[in-house]
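User: Hey, quick favor. My workstation is busy. Could you predict this chain's structure for me?
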Amino acid sequence: MHHATKHTRAPPAWPGLRGRGGLDTLSVGTEGQGMMRIAVLDDWQGIAAASADWAAVRAKADLVFLREHLGAPEQVVAALADFDAVVAMRERTRLHADVITLLPKLKLLSFTGARNAAVDIAACTAQGIVVCNTTTTRSSHGTAELTLGLILAAQRHIAAGDTEMRAGRFQGNVPPGNEIAGSTLGLVGLGTIGSRVAGYARAMDMKVIAWSQNLTAARAEAVGATRVEKAELFARADVISVHLVLSERTRHIVGAAEIAAMRPGALLVNTSRGPHVDTDALLVALEAGRIRAAIDVYDQEPLPADHALRRAPGTLLTPHLGYVTAENMPELYRSSAENLVAWLGGAPVRVVNPEVRAR
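Assistant: No problem, here it is.
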């Protein structure tokens, strides 16, 4: 049997230069008096400049790529005070009213993804700031795939095996893994990403159960899962994976009671949002050796170097890689460039606050 070969674009070169204020920046416009200034935030991997064609933006604006995270609100205000437009990468930088109201020059805020809990859209509207999003994204594939990867890597101790091999050893410090087939996956949330994970799990002969506040038995059955109550899910599942939109209702939806109900040795996976899980309660369970965790998202990002999770036993940690793929990131930046070009031309697109009276 012959299989078609899938061709993918090679990832772009990822430049990075050190510039203003000690931050890693790359300025690619011709800065001049009266010219708009645009900041692209949190380009942590230095890939933004090469991921899209910014020529039409550079023709009308000074474009600056900021690699380092700005951190505290006062740092964000100081760094962005001189910019007319900002491109935010997902929820990496908090842009709430305490920041927005101190940026009188800001006229446009474009963020990647369909929604952004880190952006106060009401505050932007009150300040006359146009807010745009990027609705065409494939991040649901990347996040679901990473979820599967974390489950496999954690259950089979792949990272530990790699460490042993590189240290010149073999199996001595690698415990036997757990087979995926026949085990039970509990999904907290069964939307687009959760449904993809359910499909992957069924293909690997896992039993899939699911719960969320609004999940119906019919919806669960449609994607090959069985709806159960929350308490049953945490008590039964060998692997629990969270896939919800972050809101006040879902914050700490995996709390101390849920973690205490998990089976001994069960695996908790979070590729959704850090605040879904009570980190303090999770750390207590990890330190006691009761459960294990595979985590891609955190309450604070970047995760501080001295954070207790970095030292916790029974963990597999990745630096929020869910949507960060060579296919998805260029799409996000291309859409962001389109937003900037449209706004610079006086006809903004993908506006999420159409009621705004732009300055």
